[in-house]
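In this supplementary section we document a worked example of the pipeline. Step one takes a protein sequence of length 95 as its only input; no multiple sequence alignment statistics are reported here. Step two produces a three-dimensional model, which step three serialises into structure tokens for compact storage. The input and output of this example are shown verbatim.
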Amino acid sequence: MRIPIQQKLADLPTTSDGIAIKLAELGIQGRRGSSWKCPIAQYLGDGVAVRPDKIVLDSDKWICLPVPEPVSEFIGKFDAGEYPELVEFPVPTPF
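The serialised model returned by step three reads:
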């Protein structure tokens, strides 16, 4: 049984840092700047793209949902370089 997207969003903590902690505990990672591969999209499931202003579901038709403020804040911080533990393919440190 799949958990509805709205329920998964409601299950997230109410701060961006709390969201980062929960995603790390779940072992979820993603790619910076990718709507389809960001940690929130990975958390929500296949066929979900996440932007700071909307969540897009690719089903039989496109469905857009609003993004809760803490999730939007998390996305902005993640894409800006915070939460490196959640990066799926971290950039190697030069020698």
